[in-house]
Amino acid sequence: MELNAQTVDIPTADGTMDAYAAWPAAKGPFPLVIMFMDIWGLREELFGLARKVAAEGYYCVVPNLYYRRGKLRFERRNADGRMVSFDTLPQDLQQEMLVLGRGLTRQMIETDVTAIFDYARTQPVSSGPAGTVGFCLGGRIGFFAAQSFPDRIRATSSLHGTLLVTDAPDSPHRLIDRMKGEVYCGHGEHDRFSEPQILAALAAPFARRSDLTYRSSFHAGAHHGYSLPDRDVHDAAATQIDWRETFAMFARQLKSPPASLAGV
Prior knowledge:
alpha/beta
């Protein structure tokens, strides 16, 4: 499919947020999908995934959630040209990245997603239900967005999401009652953020919701970061399953939403 793609600047209440957008060259409008970055920041790897989403018939935007601090990038590669895993980084760099990622609050995300919705009104984007897909940090941000904008965001895909279950009052798993539509989560076996007790605590509130669909995949042998194609721990088989589930959810919720949701 022929695509349009470009870098864009999105005005927000806190400054100008740089982003990347991709969408079909055919006449729209198209359902909106927001792709939330991982802790490493924006880079071509994510832009390629945005084009993958756009090729399925969506307008995909990837915002730089670090824009309040600048155009930060933390791309580190090994001798084979693959992006290395977080745990292999020097401790001082790990700490810097953790402070940035964990400093993204719900209020910040509400500001940023509001700005994206305003920007989308100037683009070939439909006014109906929207979706998100997020990696690592972005998986948690996707929960934040869906919980703040449940009347618009009806499909949430979290791939090796971090800190989905914490002791914080606003932990993502504590506010699942705010979400609508469908949620999909992909988890790796060798991921400290996907330990059995965490997955059980995450699944429990979904089980109490007959009006909210929750699906998940537990990938044997997969490590944190497995779904990113340039990563040294990339798992192609697990990633294929995640995208199949994600695109099926998007098709149900965004392209053929129930009549009661159309035009939301």
